[in-house]
Amino acid sequence: MTTESELASRLARLEDIEAIRTLDARYCRHLDDGNWDELMALFTEDGEFDGLSNPRGKAEMRAFFAGLADGGLTSFWHFITNLEIDIDGDMATARSFLWQPCVLDGVASIAAGRYTDTLVKQDGHWLYRVKKVRFHFFGPLADGWDENLFALDSARAAAVNP
Question: Rounded to whole angstroms, what are the CA distances from 10 to 2, 15, 54, 84?
Answer without folding.
Answer: 10, 9, 36, 17
